[in-house]
Specification:
This protein has nine helices and two strands, in the order ααββααααααα. By secondary structure, it is mainly alpha-helical. It is globular.
């Protein structure tokens, strides 16, 4: 993990805009790294610690947002799709930036599960703490738009209340 993150720093010196994407890819590989048909034995995963590796002091602050962006994917699988339980882990994150990153990661995890169904997005986002519900819907709208979906984002925006609704609508006009 450290070697890969260090390599990202070297690559980022050539293309600084790609720094977060590289860090994100390292942690994505940590979660999903399947080589030879099974997860890598070198993964940083602890079945009894839902915040690991993001809470490990060896993970420097500059890498933590990328770690928290991917932690919901790990937890979603471990907790068998229990959005409320993954949301509780995100809610327990003390740093506000990492907490928001975790909730955004959870929303992005929900996106493919809803199969372009706005009502299902609303239902699953409602399983999160109330203060994250609208942000979840908005994050799913952004995730849908990022893969070229032009139908779902406006439907999701219509479900939101002001001022979030207007922010959402402006992004997808």
């Amino acid at each position: 993990l450290h070697d890969s993150l260090t390599a990202c720093n070297i690559l980022a010196s050539l293309s600084p805009r790609q720094r977060f994407n590289c860090y994100d890819g390292v942690f994505m590989e940590n979660v999903w790294g399947v080589h030879g048909g099974s997860p890598s034995p070198d993964r940083w995963v602890k079945e009894d610690d839902d915040q690991y590796p993001c809470n490990d002091p060896r993970i420097l602050p500059q890498y933590r947002a990328a770690c928290w962006a991917n932690q919901p994917s790990l937890l979603y699988g471990r907790l068998r799709g229990d959005v409320a339980r993954v949301g509780a882990v995100c809610g327990a994150v003390k740093n506000a930036v990492y907490q928001e990153t975790c909730f955004d990661g959870l929303a992005r995890q929900i996106h493919p599960v809803i199969k372009e169904n706005a009502e299902e997005a609303k239902r699953l986002c409602a399983l999160m703490p109330k203060e994250w519900e609208a942000k979840c819907v908005f994050s799913i709208a952004r995730a849908a738009a990022s893969v070229g979906d032009k139908t779902l984002p406006p439907q999701l925006c219509d479900m939101l209340s002001s001022p979030t609704r207007e922010d959402c609508e402006m992004q997808f006009k």
